[in-house]
Here is the input.
Amino acid sequence: MSKQAAPLGLVDLSADAPCCPPLARRRVPAETAAALAPAFKALGDPVRLQLMSMIASADGGEICVCDLTPAFDLTGPTISHHLRTLREAGLVDAERRGTWVYYRARPAALRQLAALLTVEPTRG
Here is the structure.
């Protein structure tokens, strides 16, 4: 049985508005850091980062697991584990259609992470 993305308390990865100011501008509160860390941790694995890239850049906004698995020299269960980690971190949504599962990136979640990492040009 797979888990759904855990509620993130003060930070809603599905919200379109940024969760907080960029970390280069102001310290990230402990609660926000704790809520966002699982998403960053999920992307910290090279296979998951590649999977996320493949999902986010897929034509039509979604991709079948049947197209993801052959791209790696890994077993199906290992790919499924990585995809579950991305799902539990709130970075992707999955929909079963018959025997296949299709994955879609959650753009709002990616925008939240990108906004936190935004670095404004220095004035000089």
